[in-house]
Automatic annotation (TrEMBL):
Alphabetized GO MF terms: DNA-binding transcription repressor activity; transcription cis-regulatory region binding
Descriptive protein name: SpoVT-AbrB domain-containing protein
InterPro entries in the record: AbrB-like, SpoVT-AbrB_dom
Annotated ranges, domain SpoVT-AbrB: 76-121
GO CC annotation, single: protein-DNA complex
Amino acid sequence: MTQNTPLIGTALVDKVKELGNLSKEEKARACGYYTQTKNGIERVNMMKFLNALIDAEGIELDSTSEGIGRGGRSASYRISVQSNGNLLIGSAYTKKMGLESGDEFEITLGRKHIHLKQVGAFDEDEE
């Protein structure tokens, strides 16, 4: 099986733009994203082509886990009351706020809202 050296980076982007109205498969083939089997059958590798194009454009599709653990869930800014009546504010929120274990809050209940005020934090309203 033989394989061409595929284009990457700006060379790939420039070549795709140059190829204009060709189909995706023809563009992938022209940019080197194909293999040829022993029997002479040519196979276009669309997934590698599209991934290389995404990388060349600098588009970040993977979630950013900041190098810690496996990433986990991202904050959706919605929570539900659990079956035991608790509201759980997950680590995605506490990390985003820079909170640490042991930080304390005062809870103020409104009609349909909960306000948390960090104990010892400077309050702009108290000037």
